[in-house]
Amino acid sequence: MSHKQFRTEIADGIAELVIENPPVNALDSVGWRTLSQEIDALQANDDVRVLVMRAEGRGFCAGVDIKELQRHPDRIPEVNAGNWETFRAIHRGLKPVIVAAHGYILGGGIGICGSADIIVCSPDASFGVPEVDRGALGAGAHLQRLFPVQKVRQMYFTGEPIDAAEAYRLGAVEKVVPRDVLRETALDIAKTIAAKSPVMIRLAKEALNGIEDGDLEHKYRWEQGFTAQAYLTAESQEARDAFVDKRDADFTTDTSGKTKT
After folding, report:
1. Range of the domain at 98
2. What pTM, to 2 d.p., does this model score?
3. Lesser CB count within 10 Å: N end or C end of the chain?
C-alpha cells in the first residue's frame, strides 16, 4: 500500500512500513487515522508475521502536524483518536513490531516506539517529548514503557531529549548501529522471528501484553483528557502560536492581557 505520508511493502513474511512525509515526518489527522488502519490490516494479513516500521528523511517522526491544528483546532479530537488507534494497533496487535529509528523521535514518534516490541536505532537518534513547550500533553505512558519513572519526569518537565547511547544504557533500545545498516539490522531480527511458529509468537505477545504493569491504552487515554484540557488554555494557544511563528513563547501576561507579577 502507498499513502502520501507512508508506504508499505510485504516480502517473506515481513511487512515494512516506511513513514515518508517531509520535512519532519509529522502526520496530520488523516495520516494518523490511515496509519492505524494500515497497521490493523497488516496485523490481520496472513502473509505477515512481523512488522518493521522505519522512516526516510531527517528523522523518524516528529509527531502531529501542529500547523494543521492551528488552522483547524476542531480536528484536535480526530488527531487524538488517530494517535490512540495507531499506538493501540502496534501494541495490541498480536504480531511483533520492530522499530528502526533515526534522528528525532518526538511526540507521536515516542508513542510508536513505546508501543512497539523491539527498537533499534542509529547513533544520531534522539528521544524527546517537547509537549509542554507546544501547549499539549501526551506520550508519557509510552515514554514510561521505555524509560524509568524519574527519567520520564525529567524529560517531560524540561523538554530535554536523550540520545541513542543513553536510551541504550537505560534498556529501551536493543541495538545502536550505523545508519547505513539500520534497516538491515531490523530486518535480520524480523527474519529470525518470522522463521518461528506464528501461533507461538502470537500467543507469546498476548501473554507478554497481559503481564505488563497496567493498561497502556487506558493510561494513554487518561493523558489525552489532560491534552484536551490543555488545548483550552491561553497558555497552550500561545505555545502553539510561538512554535508556528518560530519565536519564543511569552507567558508574562495572563488571559486578560495583564502583565503577570
Report:
1. 2-180+197-210
2. 0.90
3. C
